[in-house]
Amino acid sequence: MARSHRLFELMQALRRHRRTVSGASLAQELGVSLRTIRRDVATLQGMGADIDGEPGLGYILKPGFLLPPLSFTEEEVQALMIGAQWVSRQTDDKFAFAVKNALAKISAVLPVEMRPTLEDETFYISKPLSVATTIDLSEIRRALRDQCKLSITLSIEHAPKDPQVIWPIMLGFIESRRHLAAWCEGDSRYRVIDMDDIAQAQVLTERYTRNRRQLIKEWRALEILPCNVRGETC
């Protein structure tokens, strides 16, 4: 394995481990000696990588350091293309534009011989069969990112007609449907709402105070189905 590729693989391994990992574990994972790991860690530290730790204690990579991409395998490029197609056809226009920009950046750093793989139409991802919602998904994503509350009005018969305030925590794409998991302030419980059932949605300036990751953890434990599947009131 070339040294530059080995350094890149070590960086990737350190990124995968969010807690301190021993040099022996890294050596086993990468198929090199412990001595090589120690030498390569020192090299990366000399290049500016913020790696905490020392021999015998383990290592952890702090956020913020990026090596320029060195190479992609053919399968990695194909995986990127499949993911890019899915995002551009299943989400919203702003994400589709972001995907186009990202692919252009990837193409710029790919070796010339790998670029045909990026442009090869080997796989096809279809658009959703039907999407009735007129809600701007980029606004929903903004609410998720900034932990902003949403005021929504539902169109299903059994739902209240007045606007409801929810804390959006996750946007899901399940087959051809889009669902929003949220904590509802009105009755203090989690719900999974079909996006097609939302007639109006407004991002509020007020933010919810609890951490979204903790809310997701609680919601996952409850295994809640979309509310209109069981005829519940949303």
Automatic annotation (TrEMBL):
It comes from the Bacteria. Pfam families: HTH_11. Gene3D superfamilies: Winged helix-like DNA-binding domain superfamily/Winged helix DNA-binding domain (1.10.10.10). Coiled coil: none annotated. Signal peptide: none annotated. Residues 6-60 form the Helix-turn-helix type domain. InterPro entries: CBASS_pafABC_assoc_protein, HTH_11, WH-like_DNA-bd_sf, WH_DNA-bd_sf. SUPFAM superfamilies: Winged helix' DNA-binding domain. This is Helix-turn-helix type 11 domain-containing protein.
